[in-house]
Amino acid sequence: MTKPHEYYMSQALKLAREAADAGEVPVGCVIVRDGAVIGRGRNRREEKQAVCSHAEMEAMAQANAALCSWRLDGCALYVTLEPCPMCAGAILNARIPKVFYGARDSAFGACGGVTNLFMEQFPHRPALVGGILAEDCQAVLAEFFEKL
Description:
Distance between the termini: 42 Å
Strand order of the largest sheet: 2-1-3-4-5
Low-confidence stretches: none
Number of strands: 5
Shape: globular
Number of helices: 5
Order of helices and strands: HEEHHEHEEH
Radius of gyration: 14 Å
Helix content: 25-40%
Largest sheet: 5 strands, mixed
Strand content: 15-25%
């Protein structure tokens, strides 16, 4: 039986909280295939001092390793914050067919917050659903930035 979207987003939220505890912007991501989480990631930009260490990029790398393939077709990506242009581009290139996010990002969002790369005329365009546990995802971010 397929678990509800809230279940997978709650897994991403756990990773976001881990990121916050480590002093990173609290964003978490899980990638699911056939009901199993095959990739997990959280922001690690400060830890690794690497621009590409966003939650989605970390989760996609783990999913690539699990599948021994750069293609992530047949997968669903759950992320607590709307993907940025870099991550949206990687999602497009990985051929991920479904993307679910929690909070909208009005500063860097590339799935509707600022622009929507998934609406452009790329050969592959993922289905997109926002607002999954949005209040919880936004609260983790707000709490983190209040402490700064």
